[in-house]
Specification:
With 240 residues, this protein is α/β, with parallel strands linked by helices. It has one domain: Carbamate kinase (3-Layer(aba) Sandwich). It contains 8 helices and 9 strands. Strands 4-3-5-2-1-6-8-9-7 form a 9-stranded mixed sheet, with helices on both faces. Helix 1 crosses helix 3, helix 5 runs parallel beside helix 7 and helix 6 packs antiparallel against helix 7.
Length: 240
Amino acid sequence: MSAPRYKRLLVKLSGEALMGQREYGVDPQTVQALAMEIAEVHATGVELALVIGGGNIFRGLSASAAGMERTSADHIGMLATVMNALAVQSALEYEGVATRVQTAIPMQSLAEPYIRRRAIRHLEKGRVVIFAGGTGNPYFTTDTAATLRAAEIDADAIFKATKVAGVYDKDPAIHSDAVLYDSISYKEVLNRGLKVMDSTAIAMCMDNNLPLVVFDMTVPGNLQRACRGEVIGTTVQMEA
């Protein structure tokens, strides 16, 4: 693999990326395959942090819409992200990658509490840091948590690894003529209401000039190609 373009990255993974062909939960083979891809990138010297959603286990917003009190629902969703973080940690360590899980909600018997300076020190020592528990607050998504952590650790970019090729002008699952963007600005994403990340996360990216690369993680090798700076998926940045 040629030299990576980025020194420090935050990779945002959906909880659904861990399901494989299951309808919910964690598929061990899928998680191990994902860990192998991450390990290959880590071996090139890229400092990697991860944020993983919890939608494969529990969706706070959906539960709230169904009648559950929103704060309680979001707290359950945060716990789901911790479960996913521990699963990915186990898979990465099986691949020989040193890791640390840090949680926004203290749970010392399972993981470290989130401490920014400690997280940066882990990255500098070559450990993959997995941030779990969202921001620790209800009403904020894991997209916002990923953007916040990326800004705090001074990441060069955020990679949003999804199941679609990138950002389209409309939903490609509904519209056969949907157009894939190679590059688009933060303002255009917000103005057009494109479902890339929630508006809070996009605004935070814009305020901190954090490039966001959206690509299909289900294609083997895409993570490595994105790290090399190849045109993969869509880049959201200050000016398209």
